[in-house]
Amino acid sequence: MNTKVRIAGVELKNPVMTASGTFGSGVEYSEFVDLSRLGAVVTKGVASVPWPGNPTPRIAETCGGMLNAIGLQNPGIDVFCSRDIPFLRRQNTRIVVNVCGRSTEEYCEVVERLGHEPVDLLEINISCPNVKEGGIAFGQNPRAVEEITLAVKRVARQPVIMKLSPNVTDITETARAAEAGGADALSLINTLTGMKIDVERRAFALANKTGGLSGPAIKPVAVRMVYQAAQAVGIPIIGMGGIATAEDALEFILAGATAVSVGTANFRNPRATVEIAEGIEAYMARHGVEDLSTLIGAVR
Amino acid sequence: MKIKETCTVIGQERIAQDVYSLWLQTGRIASQARPGQFVSLYSADGSRLLPRPISLCEIDDVQGRLRLVYRVVGKGTKEFSALSEGDTLDVLGPLGNGFPMEEAAGKRIFLIGGGIGIPPMLAAAQALESDRENKMLVMGYRDELFLDQELAAAGTLYVATEDGGAGVKGNVLDAIRSYGLAADLIFACGPRPMLRAIQEYAADRNITCYLSMEERMACGVGACLGCICASTGVDDHSRVHNKRVCKDGPVFLSTEVEL
């Protein structure tokens, strides 16, 4: 049985990756899972300098999902390169570094810096709903998506994955824009902007008022968007949004995703990633699927 | 070593208005646990995704049992309050750092609890080997007392109540003043205003003080950065001023956090 997939020439041993921001750089979850069992670890977003993030509360649970407004707290590229990359190199898995910034220059600074590091792929976060500058401001306008993609591609030495926002009217427009800018792959979806109000306190549940909705509640939206994007572009898609089981992951693959990322599910089950990888193998055995790649986009 | 396992309910009872006492039979979690740490409890209802962090009230490492005393504040804790003997529950733990018990040797210590911050102070009191008179348990309640018999058995108990129905009328610092108490070390857990007052009390008297903090959590293991608290120094993880309550804490030196 062959579970290998390729993203922009980079071979993953299986299609299961971690979703940026839910898994740190893997250190904390390595107590629960053997990271070498994963196709790749996608890191928490890293910027050119440390970011403090938003005030608390940063987390609120909703029915079948959760809102977060962390605000991309991260230690900056220097600490990341000296501490997190050496750790990840020892894990025998692919390394995907998620990059965030407030301006094109900041994204490019981090991307250039990573050009000299042993990382396999770059995922450019133009879709965080929880920061005022950068993030989603780049991700909702097709022209801005194309421009930032072009700028990043000009300096990148690794293949570039653009991470798209679902907070748009037509996902195919931003997907095509990223492809036109030279993106090697797409990640979708980031979280959906949401809000929760505590009626007893008559106050917002999050200090940031709004947050990004994730978890099983958003999965049908994510599957639909992955399907639409897969019809619109020729580059590989990494699907994510509410994946908690192997069946969920297979939905995304059948809809057209080459790989999948598991995020919020880690909070409910720290072993979710590995169990999903095993569940995909069990599905392939049950259905006599020799090569996982034959399932990609198989439902049309 | 953090473990996720399915635990069995030994028994549960309501010990005050909305406050429940749950004894769990764990596999390995209890044998690894220290006072001041916590566990995360998972709802059986998949629509409630996030685990609920609950402090450890008593640790029976010999029999592998944990006592959790918690307040019903929402749907998740409401669900837990309906559990009875023989039911099972998924638990992740032990989590967090716990109180530095070794620092208490030979010192006069205040263990201060307020409201639902009282339960973890019982685990700390039971683990301390200090003499009774040097183990001063100062507990602040709104009105109804709970765990007071267990606390009185584990040290010298001083009570404050908001309505004056028991002990000193007022808060925990009113009780300390009223009884004329003094200590060399403080461990405390409770609502933010209480912790802030204790932080100031300790600073004024130059007393080493550890505060156990609370925050909304998602992962519980230090990965998601959801539950940070403002720190005076640069934190090791993100190199800003945000320590992770679940991983770097929940117990912090009073001088390292801004409340």
SSE order of chain B in H/E notation?
EEHEEEEHEEHEHEEHEHEEEE
Largest interface: A-B, 39 and 33 residues
Q: Could you say what the CATH architecture of chain A is? A: Alpha-Beta Barrel
Question: For the residues shown, what is the average pLDDT of chain B?
Answer: 97
CATH level 4 superfamily of chain A: Aldolase class I
Structure report:
The complex is a heterodimer of chains A (about 300) and B (about 260). Chain A has about 300 residues and is of the alpha/beta class. Chain A has one domain: TIM Barrel. In chain A, about 30% of the residues lie in helices and about 20% in strands. Chain A has helices at about 75-90, 105-115, 135-140, 140-155, 170-180, 220-230, 245-255, 265-270, 270-285; strands spanning about 5, 10, 15-20, 40, 60, 65-70, 95-100, 120-125, 160-165, 185-190, 190-195, 195-200, 205, 210-215, 235-240, 260. The two termini of chain A are about 25 Å apart. In chain A, about 60% of the residues are buried. Chain B has 2 domains: about 5-95, Elongation Factor Tu (Ef-tu), domain 3 (Beta Barrel), CATH 2.40.30; about 100-210, Nucleotide-binding domain of ferredoxin-NADP reductase (FNR) module (Rossmann fold). Helices cover about 20% and strands about 35% of the residues of chain B. At the A-B interface, strand 5, strand 6 and helix 8 of A face loops of B.
